[in-house]
Write a structure and sequence with these properties.
Largest sheet: 4 strands, antiparallel
Strand content: 25-35%
Strand order of the largest sheet: 1-2-3-4
Distance between the termini: 81 Å
Shape: globular
Radius of gyration: 27 Å
Number of domains: 2
């Protein structure tokens, strides 16, 4: 009887051990799944810039091209950098601008097109530059704007569309320009806004959708305008926000998805601490 009891106890201990092993195996399978759910965070550039004597100071603008290269502007260091996929950092423009007398001061906005051309606005130099993949730099718009009396002052926001056009918002000149791939400059909206009483003041952000519709957010007039290819400008949202008590104050960030007729527009309110979907 004692031998039988001992045998049963041994079997019970083995069964419990197997149960614990099964639990541990299941738990170990869950650990990688949890780990995969975490984000991998990596600093790709710091204040030393390229590490070769070209520092980065105050970086407001960032853009990514189709190949995964990242581009960053240095507001105080008056430059912009490319961070390649392999981590190589290259200064692609500095305060000398195009090197032919057209300087770059306080670069703010940055954008990149499908061909890998990078575009940077100089807020205090009142201009914008194009940097080709080969490193050639050219000024594409300056303080004279379109050259027909519509000036550009303190440009910040910049965006490109799918057909080679570049759009630049002049925060102090209360307007937005289109620079065509051939170099022609056209003012597409000014301080009169929609021309029907909805004015535009301090445009900061610009966005474009796949249908060629342009969107511009004005921080002082607390509104967003849509400019379709045909040029029929309309105000999409104003300081009243959703009209239900959720106001929009100092629109700052702007994004558009898909075609403007079926997609959505998103805008953040810097001082109202909110965001809207239109």
């Amino acid at each position: 009887m004692a031998d039988e009891k001992t045998r049963r106890n041994c079997l019970q201990r083995k069964m419990k051990l197997r149960q614990w092993v099964t639990v541990l195996l299941l738990f170990s399978c869950l650990i990688p799944a949890a780990a995969h759910a975490q984000f991998f965070i990596q600093e790709i550039i710091d204040s030393t810039g390229d590490g070769g004597g070209n520092p980065l100071a105050n970086s407001p603008g960032i853009a990514v091209d189709a190949n995964g290269n990242v581009f960053v502007t240095g507001l105080v260091s008056d430059n912009a950098f490319q961070i390649a996929l392999d981590g190589t950092i290259t200064e692609i423009i500095d305060t000398t601008g195009d090197g032919s007398g057209q300087n770059l001061l306080t670069p703010s906005g940055i954008a990149v097109d499908v061909a890998g051309h990078v575009f940077v606005t100089g807020r205090l130099s009142d201009n914008a530059f194009e940097i080709t993949p080969g490193g050639a730099i050219a000024e594409i718009i300056e303080a004279m704007g379109d050259g027909s009396g519509n000036v550009l002052s303190q440009p910040v926001g910049i965006i490109t569309d799918g057909v080679g056009n570049v759009y630049v918002a002049g925060q102090a000149s209360d307007n937005v320009f289109r620079i065509a791939s051939g170099g022609a400059v056209t003012q597409i909206i000014d301080g009169t806004g929609d021309g029907a009483g909805k004015t535009l003041e301090d445009p900061f952000a610009v966005a474009v959708d796949s249908g060629g519709n342009i969107y511009v957010a004005a921080s002082t007039t607390n509104n967003v305008f849509k400019i379709p290819p045909g040029g029929n400008i309309s105000e999409m949202i104003d300081g009243a926000g959703d009209g239900l008590g959720n106001t929009l104050n100092n629109p700052f960030g702007l994004a558009a998805t898909s075609d403007g007729d079926v997609g959505d527009v998103y805008v953040t309110g810097l001082f109202s601490s909110n965001a809207f979907k239109i």
